[in-house]
Amino acid sequence: MTYKKTLLLNQGYQPIKAISWQRAICMHFLEKVDVLESYEWTICSPSIKLNAPAVVRLKYHSSTEPMRLRFSRGNIYARDDKTCQYCSKKHPPKDLTLDHVIPKSIGGRTTWTNIVTACSGCNTRKADRTPQQAGMKLLSKPVYPTVKSLYSSIGGEEIPEQWNNWII
């Protein structure tokens, strides 16, 4: 498989974002990055032949924050595999809702660790109660997902093997 993205790390070896391999090559020739891992496929020009960069690290300090997953409906659905966390049935996104495990009315917040995917029926049945009060059990505890756990769902492809040592 030919991957088209290069993982960009900051000086502290923390992932910042995925960039195109073309941009990574330019940054390499401008001496802005060190190539840490390469793909097996090569890029050829009339004067040079080199392996495509898979992981690069910035040589200089950057104010760019390390990679963080944005809290969004789509990312919650991806984390929960589009599965209702109460009845464990898979649904298309149009039939899903987001549920506060601890309702907002009793202090629950809208965070990765308090929101789960629920089908409309289960969300209605749970209403403004905790799962225990409603006599319902969660399929899995809501957690902050890792970049690695969501990459396939969002990016539509597997994580390149060369990235495994650099992302969690």
What does this structure look like?
The protein has 168 residues and is an alpha+beta fold. The protein folds into two domains: 5-67 and 148-163, no CATH class; 73-134, DNA Binding (I), subunit A. The chain has helices at 21-29, 73-79, 120-126, 131-134, 147-155, and strands spanning 5-9, 15-20, 33-44, 49-58, 96-100, 115-119. It has a four-stranded mixed sheet with strand order 2-1-4-3, covered by helices on one side. It has a two-stranded antiparallel ribbon with strand order 5-6. The radius of gyration is 21 Å and the shape is elongated. The protein starts with a strand and ends in a 13-residue tail after the last helix. The model has no long low-confidence stretch (mean pLDDT 88).
Query: Total domains, how many?
Result: 2
What's the main sheet like?
A: 4 strands, mixed
Strand order of the largest sheet: 2-1-4-3
Amino-to-carboxy terminus distance: 22 Å
Share in β-strands: 25-35%
Q: What helical percentage do the residues reach? A: 10-25%
Which structural class should the secondary elements be placed in? alpha+beta
Mean pLDDT: 88
Count of strand segments: 6
Structure annotation, total helices? 5
Output the helix-strand order: EEHEEHEEHHH
User: What is the CA-atom radius of gyration, in angstroms?
Assistant: 21 Å
Shape: elongated
Uncertain segments: none
